[in-house]
Write a structure and sequence with these properties.
Helix content is about 60%, strand content about 0%. The chain is mostly helical. α11 packs antiparallel against α12.
Length: about 350
């Protein structure tokens, strides 16, 4: 008795997504296998976010993925640490920012620093200033403290005022929106740099750091307010906001519990991008002679004073310029990365 082998049936049963693809491949509409990597975002080319990821988890994941951003974050933290510990770093170098060292300069050559590269030596790690002999390392670290203090304080004023105005204008609308929007337009159309120079030139016996912080903050809030207003307009009619309103929640509770968390991502990204602009503004005003006054050190002030010596002592010009460049570049790269992560639609437009 002979038996025949069963002929394989190539008619596989139909699944819910239609017939199987040739070669045993899953159908195009079928769900991905468990544990498979998430599909990439076609618009950005980046891997799609895993379900349930918070903005901070996305930010940490993306920051780990970009080497340039990691380097920028390290540079930012280094500058912040340098600004916080400026008195101890100056003492570690052995010189205060106002202390003169006449032994480090040559009086017969117009006060030029002794030695190579602007007087760099074990006693003066970054050299000395011409004529005065003040230690550049001490002045640079104390200048970082002044520049970052003004930048962070002015940014805080801008963000708080702009966020409050933007949320109020977007949520309440009507006359409130009209008044605040016209105030934003008026402030943005005002020649802020000319007004800053004029006001700082007229003010004499005042704290220059407080005055610069206030003046820079007054003219910077409309940009944040416009961003927050647009986000608030898109959030105030969401289902969860309507549910909170129907449930009896007052405007303050809705603004603080529902609207503010929704606009926090773009605000944080915009804040990081504001800081390098504030640092540059402080440096520009000090360079023009209306900012921080001597003997208080500032990067812009040091660059302005070094212009007269850039041919005979180029290191005096290079050192504060490099510190200013690195600070602005690091904050800008970090801000661009956070904007792409926390506010992707704003980054593409």
């Amino acid at each position: 008795m002979t038996t025949t082998a069963p002929v394989p049936d190539d008619r596989a049963p139909l699944g819910p997504d239609g017939p199987p693809a040739p070669g045993g491949a899953p159908a195009s509409g079928s769900a991905p296998a468990p544990g498979a990597a998430p599909a990439s975002d076609a618009a950005t080319g980046r891997p799609a976010a895993a379900p349930g990821s918070s903005p901070w988890q996305l930010a940490r994941r993306e920051l780990r993925r970009r080497p340039a951003v990691r380097v920028s974050l390290c540079v930012v933290l280094l500058f912040v640490l340098m600004a916080v510990t400026a008195p101890w770093l100056g003492a570690l170098g052995g010189w205060s920012p106002e202390e003169f060292d006449k032994t480090a300069i040559d009086p017969y050559l117009g006060g030029q620093p002794l030695g190579s590269f602007g007087g760099i030596s074990p006693e003066h790690w970054l050299g000395v200033e011409p004529v005065t002999g003040r230690d550049l390392f001490a002045r640079v670290v104390h200048g970082a403290q002044v520049s970052l203090l003004i930048a962070f304080a002015a940014t805080a004023i801008v963000v708080v005022a702009g966020t409050a105005a933007g949320i109020a204008a977007g949520y309440f609308g009507g006359r409130t929106d009209a008044v605040l929007s016209r105030l934003m337009d008026l402030t943005m159309s005002f020649p802020s740099l000319i007004f800053m120079i004029a006001m700082l030139s007229v003010a004499k016996d005042v704290n220059r750091i407080v005055l610069m912080t206030s003046v820079i903050g007054v003219f910077g809030w409309p940009g944040v307010a416009r961003v927050v207003r647009g986000q608030t307009l898109s959030l105030k009619h969401r289902e969860y906001v309507d549910a909170a309103r129907v449930g009896g929640s007052g405007p303050w509770r809705i603004l603080t519990r529902d609207i503010l968390p929704g606009v926090s991502g773009p605000v944080i990204a915009y804040t990081t991008l504001l800081i390098p602009g504030m640092i540059s503004t402080e440096a520009a005003l000090s360079y023009l002679g209306v900012g921080v006054r001597p003997p208080t050190p500032s990067w812009g002030q040091m660059i302005a004073e070094s212009v007269a010596y850039y041919e005979t002592d180029p290191m005096y010009f290079v050192i504060p310029s490099v510190f200013l460049f690195l600070a602005v570049l690091a904050f800008t790269l970090l801000g661009d990365a956070l904007r792409d992560i926390l506010d992707p639609r704003g980054g593409r437009t």
